[in-house]
Amino acid sequence: MLVLPKKKRPPEMVNPKRMLLFGQPKTGKTSILASLDDCLIVDLEEGSSHVSAMAVKVNNLDDYKQLINALKADMDDNNGKKPYRFIAVDTLTGLEELALPFATKLYNQTPMGAKFTGDVRTLPNGAGYLYTRQAFMRLLKPLMNYCDTLIMVGHVKEKEIGRDGEQMTERSINLTGQTKNIICGWADTIGLVYRDANKTMINFAPSDDLIVGSRQEHLIGQKICVASSDENHKLSIDWTKVFKEEE
């Protein structure tokens, strides 16, 4: 029998379960993730080659299947313990490209697409993007089973918009069509990674021209420095203001 609550309960989650980070190239996204303890980087764009990182390079669907199988085997061998605290997908654009053959396979399973070959994005009236979205999410979601926090990394997209008679540049994650809306709705925290002099910052404070935000109380409206370098270019990285120790 359902027992109705009579008082507020404290939050069940302190840290994000699904974090979306985006920014311009060469702003240090991969470098700061490489320093995050117990973080596996799923490298889809050869971005981890220049840093010391716990990373696995994925170049095709077979590589991705092997990764999922390895994560499952590790979890089974350790009595259900998740293999990593963090898994970072670097980048979502790379995952979109990786998902294309899978999208074609999904379309081939329909009566209309049984004999189709090629890129489903060329289907009339944008019909193929339904299958690219399905394929993308079916690749991404299983990673949640093997970590406490899934970090999704992407590039920034800037577009000119008109608002209240004024032109402004809106910045958000660079993903295709409805995939962007799905991912932004699925993530519980979204941040813009950017450089400020010798600092690498993550901005969680939304504005008229920036699509970011968080459901986590300690991140709401915050701009947090996660890395800084001294005059000798020595980098110091600290994630403790982003990810709190769970009690």
Description of the structure:
This protein has 247 residues and is of the alpha/beta class. The protein has one domain. The protein is built from 6 helices and 11 strands. It has helices at 29-34, 61-77, 92-98, 100-108, 129-140, 177-186; strands spanning 18-23, 39-43, 55-57, 86-90, 149-163, 166-173, 189-196, 199-203, 213-214, 223-229, 235-237. β5 and β6 (166-173) form a beta hairpin. The longest helix has 17 residues, at 61-77. The chain starts with 17 loop residues before the first strand and ends in a 10-residue tail after the last strand. The mean pLDDT is 92.
Characteristic terms for this protein:
alpha/beta; 247 residues; 25% helix
Which SSEs are present, and which pair or pack?
Layout: E1 18-23, H1 29-34, E2 39-43, E3 55-57, H2 61-77, E4 86-90, H3 92-98, H4 100-108, H5 129-140, E5 149-163, E6 166-173, H6 177-186, E7 189-196, E8 199-203, E9 213-214, E10 223-229, E11 235-237
Helix pairs in contact: 4-5
